[in-house]
Amino acid sequence: MPTPPAARPRVTGVAAAAGGIALGVAALAAWLLRRPDHRPGAGLNSTGRLGRSLHLARLTSRVSTGYLTGSAREVFASAERKEELRAERQLRSTADVVATLGSMKGAFMKLGQMASYLDAGLPDHVRDALATLQADAPPMTGELAASVLAEELGAGPDELFEEWDPVPIAAASIGQVHRAITLDGRAVAVKIQYPGVDRAIRADLDNSALLLQLLRGAFPSLEAEPLVAELRERIGEELDYRLEARNQTFFADAFAGHPFIHVPAVVPELSSQRVLTSELVVGSRYEEVLTWPQEERDLAGETIFRFVFGCLYRLRVFNGDPHPGNYLFHRGGRVTFLDFGLVKWFDDADVEILASMVQSLVTADDPVAFRRTAERAGFLRPNSDFPNEPGLSDEQVGDYFRHYYELVLAEGPQRFSPDYASETLRHFFAAGDPVLKRANVPPSFAILQRINLGLYAVLAGLGATGDWRRIASEIWPWVAAPPSTPLGELAAGWTPGAPPRPVG
């Protein structure tokens, strides 16, 4: 892989919070752990906005107190003992952050999930602790889960299912998942939304003032209001499992019979606004896959890459929550994709803009055409908007944006490495970069930043290696290159479905 540019100063949690796609909360956990001396303002956001603000304020106060007490103890300690005291304090702070975010659920729990795999600067033990939020957050009781079923479906689990496991197999930011056997003998996974989490997330999202302030500070040219509105709408959609069921059914139909991409089928008669029942799939979690041979990890990475970009360019849809907890892995490159609550549908014009940018910068190496497309789409403000400042050259613009295409610009096998993922995050928040000062994120494309801030981190964790230029050339409709890998051969022999888009 080409050597990444020289490392810039690592982003702070506040800067990272400005641009994360889930309303920027992804790096706040890292901020709380790295900046224990920082007191949040009154604007930071139980289910009510004030109550959740108090939760975070108290958490930060506890971390701050621990920092000050620990610093005093370190004054007279030896160098070796200072390191021990710092490690102990960090572990206590991490445990407190994980416990608080896990119990709060909603958007702030997503914060910890994303920070666990996004921020390469976190110590391993901190990352490991936050990673427990990906699939093993503190669950609600079996009795409470049963009450939600009764309220949503009109009966309790004993009447709805032949068998029901009251102990959840996964508990995450919005709901938890239980195993069950239907009355007609099907093994299913039943996702139940936490009572009140809809109010909690809306309370988290209501604090737009702080988010707008952060966005404007990090990206001076950003049209923040429409971007925030788009993010609020996308994230709010996750609360309606009926919408997620329609999305998941679309993907399941689109990939029916695919040789290595699998989406569990939905059981509509056992689904509702707060309950989603689908086919139960047994597979390996991300953490286990990291112990597999590199060849298997490469195959898994290739499948995820093909799924994301194949959906974007061929189906005009993006499943916007790529994080380690949303995959189940099987040997030979087969991957089951989970969680379709955050989905963005694009029209032909949107995809044509993305294709034109790739064509001009990657296949044609034409920075002039790239800049013209970027300005037309609203990714970059023109020089004429800044009459009193030196103009940006086409080469400056091309050099800045090439980083995001680096692994498809190069010929031959390239490795998604943690260094590349970390540099991508720093590149996204490169304060002072003259191009970034004039950059913008058009609302229609806001969710795609999860590719830079999420997907690349997942692939880097796998250390996935492949000839991404050749694989991408198979996927890009304007190239439609022949298969270049065994998985490509399998995909070429599969007849894709052409499902209509879900209505509503």
Secondary structure tally: strands: 12
Shape: globular
Termini separation comes to 43 Å
Sheet bearing the most strands, described?
5 strands, antiparallel
Average pLDDT value?
76
Radius of gyration: 23 Å
Proportion in helices: 40-55%
The percentage of residues in β strands lies in: 5-15%
Low-confidence stretches: 1-75, 89-109, 111-118
Number of helices: 22
Structural description of this entry:
This protein has 504 residues and is α+β, with helices and mostly antiparallel strands. Among the domains are: 13-131, no CATH class; 284-504, no CATH class. It is built from 22 helices and 12 strands. The protein has helices at 13-19, 28-34, 49-74, 79-104, 106-118, 124-131, 142-153, 157-160, 197-206, 208-218, 224-237, 241-254, 286-289, 294-315, 348-363, 367-377, 394-402, 406-409, 418-428, 449-462, 468-475, 486-492; strands at residues 161-164, 170-171, 175-182, 187-193, 261-262, 275-279, 317-319, 327-329, 335-337, 343-345, 414-415, 465-466. The strands form 4 sheets. Strands 1, 2, 3, 4 and 6 form a 5-stranded antiparallel sheet that branches. Strands 5-9-8 form a 3-stranded mixed sheet, covered by helices on one side. Strands 7-10 form a two-stranded antiparallel ribbon.
